[in-house]
Amino acid sequence: MQSQDVAQRHAPASAGPVGIEQAEAALVEHYPRLVRIAYLVLPPGLGRSRRVLTAHALTQRALPRGRKRAAVLPAQVSGREGDPGYACLRERVLRAALEAARPRKGLPRLSQLPSPLPQVWGLRLFPRSGGADELALDQRLSALSGPARAAYVLRGLEQLPDAAIRSVLQAAGVDDPGGALAAANGVPAQPALLSSPEFDPCSLQARPTDLLRRRQHTKAALAAAAALAVCGVLVAMPGGGWGPDGAAAPVYAGNPAAEAALDPGRVTQVSPGVWRSAARADFSVWPARGPLTGDRALLRRALAVWARPGGTVRVSATPGTQTGGPAGPPQLLYAGVVDNARLVIFYDGLRIARYAEPKDGTQGAALDFARVDGASGAEASALVLGRSDGNVRYLTAPWVRKAAARDLTKPDAAVTPLALGDGVTAPLASPALRPGDCASWTVLQLTDASGTRLATDLGELVPAHLTAGRPGSPGEATGAQGLRAWAPFACSLAAERSAGIRSVNAWAYAAQPLPDGSGAADWVCTRAETWRGDGTAAMAQFHPPGQAAGTAVAKGTDTPACGARDPQVLAGVLWKSGAGHWYLLAAGGKDTASIRATGGVTASGRGPLLAARAAQGARADLTGTLTDGRPVAGLH
Asked: Does the pTM exceed 0.90?
C-alpha cells in the first residue's frame, strides 16, 4: 500500500487540468531543474553546445498554449512532487526531449526543428567540465536509449520510485516503460553526479566558434562593415569616444519644445534640503546626487538616447510604461558610476528613466523605464541603481536614515545594517537574480522618521513595497506579526518578477484546525498590486504545521478578491493527514457565513471553515455566502 500511495503521489499532471498561470509559475520556479532534465535526456551525440541550446528551447516550449484557466484543487503535498504544474511541465519536457532524440522519418517534428530562441551567435556555450566520474557517467548514458536515459534521470535526479517512473514515461509517450527502466538499471545509481555542474545547462562557459571559417565566409562583409564604421565614427564622433548624442538615432524633428527637453542646461536639479519643507514626500523632492551631476556631455547623451534610442540601445520597460521621450526638461535624480557603468536617472513626473553606458568603450548603452505615477512615502523611498554578481544597489530617498538587509524567510533573525553613502546602499543579495530553488529571500529594510518598511527587488527599477494586514488597512510588514505572516510565503514573490508590481500585501485571513488534531493550518492571501492598475494577482496560500514553507493553492488575476475593493477570499485544498486520509479543507474570511463544495466533493457547512472527507485526486468547486447575503466564489 505504501508503494502504491507513493506512485499515486508522483502521478503525472494529466490526472486533472492544469491552468496556464499555474504552469507558468512552476516554469519560473523550477526552470533550472527542467532544463537539466532535458539536457540529460537529449542524446550526447548532439554535442554539449547544441544540447544546451536545445534543452533551453524545449523547456521554454513546454508551457501549454492558451489562456484557459482550470478550476482545480491541487493535492497538498510538500515539495516539487505535489505541484501539478511542475508535473505537467516535466512530462512535456520529457516528451519533447524524447521526440528530439528519435531518428527523423519524413518531415521533422516541431521539437526537432531549430528554435528561434535562444540563439547565441559567434559563441559555443557548454556546462563547466566535471571530473573523471562525470565523464564516465556521461559515456554510460550515451550508450542508453532516450527512454532509458529518461528513466535513469527520473530515478536519480527526481528520486521517483519505479511505479511512478513507469507512469511518467507512459504519459510521455514511451512504448515500453518497463524495458526502459530495466535498461537504466544497468547503470549504477549516482544521484550526486546528476546534480553536478557538468550537467547544469544554466551555468555555462563560453568559447568562440570556428574563427577561421567565419573569417573566410565573411571577409568581404567585414571589410564593408569596417568602412561604414570608419565613416560613422568620422561623422558622429570627430573627437573620438562618445559623440555629442552618444548612441542616439539621428535628429528627425526641429520642434522647439522637444529640443528644450534635450538641453542638459535645463534639467531640473532639486536642492538637498527642499524635501524637509515640501508638502509631500515623493520623487519630485529628491535632490540630484552622484559625482557626475555636472557632466553636461553625459547628461546630453542620456537625454538624446531617451528621445531617440538608436539601434544599438537596449530598451526595456515595466508593463504598461511608455518609452517615448520626455515632454519637457526632466528632473535629475542621480548621475555617477556604479560598478562598470556610468548611470543617469531621470524623473519626468510619471516615469523613472535610467540610462547606462559602459565606463570604458562606446558600445552597449541601455535605457530602462518604470511607471511611478502617484508614488509617495514608502513607494518613493528607493530606486535600483544597478545589479551585478547576484547583488543589487539602491538609491534611497533623502529622508531615509538607515538601511538594512533582512531575510524574509527568517522572521526572528537580526537584520544586517547597510552602509549609506550619498543615499547609495552597499550591495545586498538580490532575489531577482538568484537561480535555482529558493531557500531565502533578502529584502531591503528602510528606516525614516515615520518608521520602518520593507521593499523587495522584483527585477524592476522600483522595488515593491511589502505590507501585511487586512485589505484596505494594511500595515508595514516590519512588525512581528507581519514578519511571521510573510515568512512561509516569501519565496512565492518569485512569481511576480518583472510584472510591474507596486506593492504586495500578505493577509492571514484564517487559521483552520486540522481534522486529525495535529494542529492548525494558516491560510494567507498575498495580493500584488501593479502600477498600471490591471494585472493584479491574488494568491491563496496554505501552510500546515510542521512545514517550513507554504503552498500556493489558488490564484486569481485581474480580480478584486483579497483587495481593498473586495476584501473577501475563499479557497480550498486537498490535504492528506498523517494517517493517510484525504480531506477537502476550505477557508474564507471572517465575514463568510457558509461554504459549499460541489463536483467531486459534496459538502457544506456554516461559518468560514469547511473540512470534509474526500478521495485522492478529487476536484471540487467552492461557493460561499457572506454574512450580508452576498455570494463569494472560490479562487481557482
From this structure: no
